[in-house]
Amino acid sequence: MIRKEEICKQCGARCCKGPSPNITIFDVVRILKYLNEKPENVLKYFEVYTHEEYLCKILPERFNVYISYETINELKRRLGKYFENLLIIKLKKREDNSCIFLRDDDRCSIYPVRPMACRAYPLKITGLDDSCPMVKYDVDLSYERSMLDIYVREIEQHYRLFMSREISTVNQLIEVLLEYWSKVPIL
């Protein structure tokens, strides 16, 4: 049976060379702690946008990905004012759109604390990414299922927190990171 690591090596880490998944404050804390960085340095490793900026500007310009007007309007309807001012966090990208944590050998430099969305891949909140070779090889995805469950819980907690406090600035984000610093273990 082929191992997951071998499949990822054959694939060339395609999943790390496109749009970043949504990152939670829990992911940010774990990664910054692992890197021995302070919350104030969040912008060194992460990009912070509003939903509107990311969906309507960054995705089309950087990744040539367009979200339908129907989807954007539905998000605006569901999120209301949060669509325009609530922050979302993404991993920083290099000029070639690869993750800043992707090494030259196509391995993750923060693997022990990689974001929950990365741990769950090829499973995503929206379903299975059947372009991933792990799907083709019919690999056991039980670990990824358990990580997806954790990711979904963390995403829910993240958005509840961001919406209840209306976190719309980087300074507010840093305050929340400082608050959660001692509460989130590296894993």
What does this structure look like?
The protein has 187 residues and is mostly helical. Helix content is 51%, strand content 7%. The chain has ten helices and four strands, in the order αααβαααβαββααα. A hairpin with a 2-residue loop joins β3 (123-124) and β4 (127-128). The longest helix has 24 residues, at 142-165.
Describe the structure in brief:
This protein has 187 residues and is mainly alpha-helical.
Topology at a glance:
Elements (H helix, E strand, L loop, with lengths): L3 H8 L13 H10 L7 H4 E5 H13 L5 H11 L1 H5 L1 E5 L24 H5 L2 E2 L2 E2 L4 H4 L5 H24 L4 H11 L7
Helix pairs in contact: 2-10
Number of helices: 10
The tally of strands reads 4
What does the largest sheet look like?
A: 2 strands, antiparallel
Average pLDDT taken over every residue: 92
Q: Please give the share of residues in helix.
A: 40-55%
Q: List the strand order in the largest sheet.
A: 1-2
What oligomeric arrangement do these chains adopt? single chain
**Would you tell me the structural class of the helices and strands?**
mainly alpha
Which strand-content bin applies to the residues?
5-15%
Main attributes of the structure:
187 residues; mainly alpha; two-stranded antiparallel sheet; 51% helix
